[in-house]
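Q: Convert this sequence to structure tokens.
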Amino acid sequence: QVQLVESGGGLVQPGGSLRLSCAASGSIFSINTMGWYRQDPGKQRELAAIITSGGITNYADSVKRRFTISRDNAKNTVYLQMNRLKPEDTAVYYCHAMSRRSVSYWGQGTQVTVSS
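A:
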């Protein structure tokens, strides 16, 4: 039983940066992999970045070298630092967590809009 709450979304100009946060509460000890997914209207939800409990990260090709996922275990928070943002990055970004028993948890999402 895990609750995820995202924050940090907003409107930013192309080339700008945003930092998303996802605060987790509940059975934190049960979380294994965490990630950020994104979904724009008319498109399917896609994985942007994931990070394991051991700190191993993977990124979608579209965000690699621009986004950085990290986690602060002391604060029970995962972050997504987004740099050099592009209009195509516009989407609702959802925090996701998977327990060690393969149970998935989702946040409500935070809107990121990249526009001049």
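The two ends are 40 Å apart (CA to CA).
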